[in-house]
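Fill-in record for RNA polymerase sigma factor.
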Amino acid sequence: MTASNTDRAVDAVWRMESARIVASLTRMVGDVDLAEDLAQDALVAALEQWPRTGTPVNPGAWLMTVAKRRAVDYLRRSQRVQRGQEKLGRELEAQQEATAPELAEAMDDPVGDDVLRLMFICCHPVLSLEARVALTLRLVGGLTTEEIARAFLVPVPTLAQRIVRAKRTLRAACVPFEVPTRPELAARLSSVLAVIYLIFN
């Protein structure tokens, strides 16, 4: 496979799988911005390795596995500062074992609970409506910043800053990675539906 064909294959797989990967990583590390960075690391790894080794049989699972390894590496570095080496090793082994069935389940489920949680985070009322739409298109829809900027007819730097500010706002508000509980589900669901309506209209 030529480099250009590989690039097209990576791009196609990324558009289909990025929401699930980012959602799964957000659950692991608790930070949507960091999760996207880790997912991008996996994408770079694919762009570097697939031209040499060929596209994997299950490219989505390959990306998910590499991304989760990046997350585990990040957690290992973070926890090493606070815990002793022996205790850390036991915890990481348990975490890796625990994430293996989740990976299999995620690959069987084309939507998955994690993507639903990611959608609720992207559409959280703490964000402006414009930020909710942009972040949803970026993280759930898999569109590039340039593509979203063209759709909104705004400069790319403006749209990029909107997304960066949205992620910072979510981090500052400590928005949990979860589907809202029943008392607040109706209000939160209306926020999600408003974003979906704007995207499709």
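KEY FINDING: Confidence is low (pLDDT under 50) at residues 106-111.
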